[in-house]
Design goal:
transmembrane helix; 141 residues; mainly alpha; 7% strand; amino acid transmembrane transporter activity; AA-permease/SLC12A_dom; two-stranded antiparallel ribbon; 2 strands
Length: 141
């Protein structure tokens, strides 16, 4: 496989993929993925409902599911390297409407994630500054 792969879109434009991720980039992606906002926001409720053993089991089960998902995406990316996201694979192998829906669901996922991150930052700051209204922290972040 060459260092640069090209993907010709329907419009005829050529986009080039460059493989420039270094070890430090991969380490930061891994840290950001494993220590996310959900760990701080949701782990307390999970432990309260399921107990420590149930929380550990549920995190292990979800981790296994994410492992299989990422392995599948890695196989697809190695087989067909494109400059789009996984919605490109849905369009090619299932249906164009399915790929379209995947793309919008992915956008919606990150729109909600940004809102959750703002609320989590607000909750953390309210711990140290209880007299300041929470909406101020959300506006600042």
């Amino acid at each position: 496989m060459s260092e640069q792969q090209t993907d010709t879109a329907k419009s005829g434009a050529v986009r080039t993929l460059r493989r420039e991720l270094k070890a430090r980039h991969l380490a930061m992606i891994a840290i950001g993925g494993s220590i996310g906002t959900g760990l701080f926001v949701a782990s307390g409720a999970t432990v309260a409902q399921a107990g420590p053993g149930g929380a550990l089991l549920s995190y292990a089960l979800i981790g296994l599911m994410v492992y299989f998902l990422m392995t599948s995406l890695g196989e697809l990316a190695a087989f067909m390297p494109v400059s789009g996201s996984f919605s490109t694979y849905g369009s090619k192998y299932v249906d164009e409407g399915f790929g379209f829906a995947l793309g919008w669901n992915y956008w919606y996922n990150w729109a909600v994630t940004i809102a959750v991150d703002l609320v989590a930052a607000q909750l953390v700051m309210l711990y140290w500054f209880p007299d300041v209204d929470g909406w101020i922290w959300s506006a600042l972040f």
